[in-house]
Design goal:
mainly alpha, elongated
Length: 95
């Protein structure tokens, strides 16, 4: 009975090294590496939270068209809409 070989060289048990033995484990090292891997938060986003809404493509297209026609960025149109919503419900315009 023949077995198909993958073309990779065979490695004997004496040549194998466990992953744990080859990588030293230092307490907190993983957290430090994860913190380093994250890009810095831009100053304009510090202390803020994201709010995401999903709309039909037609709504997004009309919103982008309005932004282009008025030369008002999307975030400013959103801010204006939220402040009007807050005012409608008797809340202060804080957006």
């Amino acid at each position: 009975m023949t077995t198909k070989r993958s073309g990779l060289p065979r490695v004997g048990k004496s040549q194998m090294v466990s992953a744990q033995a080859s990588v030293p484990v230092i307490a907190g090292m993983q957290e430090e590496e994860e913190a380093k891997a994250k890009p810095p938060i831009p100053k304009t986003r510090q202390g803020k939270k994201a709010v995401t809404f999903y709309f039909e493509p037609e709504v997004v297209k009309l919103l982008k068209t309005l932004s282009l026609e008025t030369d008002i960025p999307l975030k400013d149109l959103g801010r204006e809409a939220l402040n009007e919503l807050f005012a409608k419900h008797g809340k202060p315009p804080i957006a």
